[in-house]
Amino acid sequence: MTQLTSDATSESRELAKTPGASRTGLSAWGSLLVVWLVWGSTYLAIRVADRSIPPFAMAGARYLTAGAVLYPLALLGSRRRQAAAPSALSHPAGPSRLAQWGGMAVVGTLLLAFGNGGVSYAEQTLPSGLAALLVASVPLWMALADRVINGQRIPLLGWLALVIGLAGIAILARPAGTGAVLPVLVVLGASVSWGVGSVLAGRLPSPASPFVGSAMEMLAGGVVLTGLAAATGELTRVDPAHVSEQSLLGLLYLIGPGSLLALTCYVVALRRLPTAAVPTYAYVNPVVAVSLGALFLGERLTPATLVGGVVVVASVAMLLINRTGATADPGETAGTPAVPHRDR
């Protein structure tokens, strides 16, 4: 993920109200299943890609490639839809393309460069399952950022969910050991950056098409990640001759299924499924990631990790259910994405 802005989410929901897009079928539920499995599996792919590709260089290559593929296709699709239904997708008084690039550059930097880049860096040493469980806290940071940035009120049950979630994070972080303190802090910082970026996305200029916006974010985030790779000396350490086949396959998986396929399926699910169904990926993804890490990488699941993970996932479920039930259309709450969109 890539991050779809709050405006793009609102557009998706407007499209969902049209007769042709409102029909929910097997394809929509199948799309959500893809989001569950693929975004959950990207933590495993990142861990494998990190083995012989420096993390910032790897993440930069991922998003520059995916963005370069998506951007022209998204522009073409957007223009065709505008021509077919200009009243649904055109915004005559909307922001200029330069302003859109500026807004998407900020979002792409916070989500993909600092968010995903931080996770990629930490997974050099941190188990993929533990990283996924820590990242599951993103909706908690989103709620806090929404409170600070937009003044959005957090009800009592929401505060309770936040406290429970922070307790779960403390349980997860404690058994990691002194050698894992830095990567744990990096992942938590990445999660905070993702939450802040998700909330700011609703306040920044963005294209009407969610695919165009996502492509912009990927290209901007990829440029920043490449800059980080150059600043840290990673680019001088990239040797194609020493990139393992497994790491290359991991990177290709992150570009294809992890970015392009899952993004498309996510938008389909947003447009055609009930509001309450889509956020479920936020607490299914960590379960998938932990299971795959244990199965393919032999990552050991300690009792503390299981308990902390259950506490975090339960708090996120409580928070999302509470926020979904607080309004008939949470996606149109001022400045607040109803779902913590991500591309991992």
Automatic annotation (TrEMBL):
Membrane-spanning intervals of the chain: 26-46, 58-77, 98-119, 125-144, 156-174, 180-201, 208-231, 251-269, 281-298, 304-321
Predominant place of localization: membrane
Segments of this protein annotated with the region Disordered: 1-22
Subcellular localization(s) per the UniProt record: Membrane
Membrane topology label: Multi-pass membrane protein
Family (UniProt): Belongs to the EamA transporter family.
Protein name: EamA family transporter
Species the sequence originates in: Trebonia kvetii
